[in-house]
Design brief:
This protein has about 250 residues and is an alpha+beta fold. It contains 7 helices and 5 strands, in the order αααββαβαβαβα.
């Protein structure tokens, strides 16, 4: 009797299928690569992150004109992180306050469609002066850059200047009081316009004098709280509210 030959295993079949799949995947990634553009600087950073100890990175598309130091790109860990949307703005400003040790003099509050920053007057101005202090300029510049990073989402930026009644029972002289608060808010707006890419048409300055207090005039602490500059940032498309409504949410008045 003729000996029956056992059937061969189907090893060659699955290997063929596997090879076809790998070939198709290779073609797919080649196609993706061919229709994409490679950012050389970012690609180099990615490769270096996987092999930080390498003296050279051979798996990079090189550019003979690239000079040392050109691999610094936006988003580097040493640079401030850019804000992606309006919702992140308040949290970014709060982080800046912590980093710059401003918690005693600057506060940030937020609500539906707005962010509200309060600066005590000593941050930007000396007493009875509307000249912006040199030490206050970097603070204002960093806040302006944060706002500029979500410029397309901002509908309006209102800078509000306030004074405090010098004596509990004696109102300030009207002309000096109104002019000082108006000049302070205008100084802040003008400097923001100089150091940021914010649209000047979206920026408004207003002076309220002593007539929008958030604390008592009877104590030095209360009067210090009343002397302030506020920045109200409203989001594009947000329901507009009057100032009293914002104050109710921010100060609870």
């Amino acid at each position: 009797m003729k000996k029956r030959t056992p059937p061969q295993e189907a090893e060659s079949d699955w290997m063929g299928t596997y090879g076809d799949m790998v070939t198709l995947l290779l073609c797919f990634f080649v196609l993706l690569y061919s229709i994409s553009s490679v950012d050389q600087q970012k690609w180099e950073i990615i490769v270096k992150s996987f092999n930080p100890g390498a003296d050279a990175v051979s798996q990079i598309v090189t550019d003979s004109d690239l000079k040392e130091g050109d691999d610094d790109v936006e988003g580097h860990m040493d640079q401030p992180e850019m804000v992606d949307n309006f919702e992140d703005l308040m949290y970014t400003l709060q982080e800046m306050i912590q980093q710059q040790n401003l918690s005693d003099n600057v506060t940030v509050e937020g609500g539906e469609g707005f962010a509200f920053i309060t600066f005590q007057d000593m941050v930007f101005f000396d007493g009875d002066s509307s000249a912006l202090k040199d030490e206050g300029k970097p603070i204002l510049e960093s806040f302006g850059q944060a706002m500029a990073s979500v410029a397309d989402s901002i509908q309006q930026i209102q800078v509000l200047g306030h004074t405090s009644q010098a004596a509990p029972n004696i109102p300030n002289e009207a002309h000096t009081d109104r002019l000082l608060s108006a000049e302070r808010s205008a100084e802040v707006v003008a400097y923001l316009q100089q150091v940021s890419n914010l649209d000047p048409a979206k920026m408004i300055s207003s002076g309220f004098g002593q007539f929008r207090p958030i604390a008592t005039f009877d104590t030095p602490e209360g009067r210090a709280q009343n002397r302030r500059v506020e920045i109200l940032i409203t989001r594009t498309g947000a329901v507009e509210q009057n100032l009293d409504a914002y104050y109710d949410q921010v100060y609870g008045q």
